[in-house]
Amino acid sequence: MIDGSTVRYPLFDIEVTRPLSDLPLSPGDAGVAILVRRKGVPIAFWLQEVNGIPRMSAGELTRRIATEAGEKIVSETIREEMMSPSSAASLPSLTVAICTKDRPEGVERLLHSLRGQMAALPEGSRGCEILIVDNAPSDERTRDLAALCSEVRYVCEPRPGLNFARNRALREARGEVLAFLDDDVVVDKSWSIGLAEACTENRDAVAFTGQVLPLELETEAQIAFEIRGGFRRGFDRVRYGPVLPGNSLYPGGAGILGAGANMAFKTEALRKLGGFDEALDTGAAVPGGGDLDIFYRIIRAGHTLVYEPRFLVFHQHRRDMKSLLRQYRRSWGLGFMCYISKCLKDDPERRINLLRLIYWWFVNDLLGLLMHLKKKLQGRRHLPPSLFLGELWGGVVGLFGGYSRSLRRVEQIRKSFP
Q: Exposed, middle or buried, 241 (CB in 10 Å: 0-12/13-18/19+)?
């Protein structure tokens, strides 16, 4: 990617049990994004440049699917043949919490996708409620939207900050399982089935995360974010416990466990852990780290977290570079290092590993910056160096007192809203 270029990657959803056909492309398409499913189950996703061709042939698509998903198709087929029939998965009583601030359009889009889920809950499920937590709203638009939806329960949390809203959802939840969805996602058709299977087959787990893929790739910023990895975590179910063989930094790099845009918890277990740290994910000042912190605390408390790729949502990435830069600088730089600073203070047993993680994080970002600076100088496609510089600077700010400053800020917020 070259700064200032016009790019678009149309998304194609391919079912491999059906005949494949050519994929039509438009003159402005710089690439494609392809999601592959087998019998509705997502098994692979990739981005591919197309260099102005009018279509991708079925033959080329078949070859690429064989390369990207061949082993997965074979393993899924074998598993299906060898496994004995089991009782159908079902969901415990579920609360779906949408924590939002001044984004009624996104909430409406998400509610539309959830309606299909609620109508198709797995047999034996115990019911579902949808809870909207309106966080320090500046107007009544979200309240008015909720009033039009009989299936929605609405509450207003006046204290600004995402983790204030998440904790309000935790207090209000009636379900045995509490799922959090960001207001910039829509759920996949198999979202509730994926969560049900993860719960049924992992009854000891207290937390669940899922796959997050792009909703659209229409701008340079959206494609840059996805090329750098986005929120994707692969297509294999993973059980995360106290240790992760081969990863001495675990669970410090909690981003491998999933993303807060799509996560669920056993409600009572989350309450026993004390909920979310309100000094993280606390509005514009520290807009990140809250999900990483709760994942870390769950693992360090000896619990199991399950990543389930069928528990899938599609995320509306930031459309402009200014917003994306702010995300890397504050959410992924400042927020990450505020979370690590907290861990250094609260978990002295892991201090050496956390210090190693800080070193790895800075080195990894610097290497990425140098690689893309070199590509830029050579006139090759590259990610904007400002993304790496912004993230590095945010990390420095967060590491040197960011969490302490946030604790003081949050205490003032609590005093303002007794």
A: middle
Integer Cα distance of 49 and 47 in angstroms: 7
Gyration radius of the chain over CA positions: 22
SS3 of the chain: helix, strand, coil, percent, to 5: 45, 20, 35
Spatial CB neighbours of 223, under 8 Å, sequence gap ≥ 6: 1, 7, 9, 30, 31, 47, 217
Kindly state the helix (H) or strand (E) to which residue 305 belongs, with its residue range.
Answer: strand 305-315
Q: What's the pLDDT tens digit per position in 293-329?
A: 999 999 999 999 999 999 999 999 999 999 999 999 9
- For the stretch 57-93, pLDDT in tens is 999 999 999 999 999 999 888 888 876 555 567 889 9
Confidence band of 285 (pLDDT split at 50, 70, 90): confident
Task: Tell me the C-alpha to C-alpha distance, in Å, between residue 286 and each of 337, 405, 407.
Answer: 10, 10, 10
User: For residue 242, is the peptide bond before it cis, meaning its omega torsion is within 30 degrees of 0?
Assistant: no
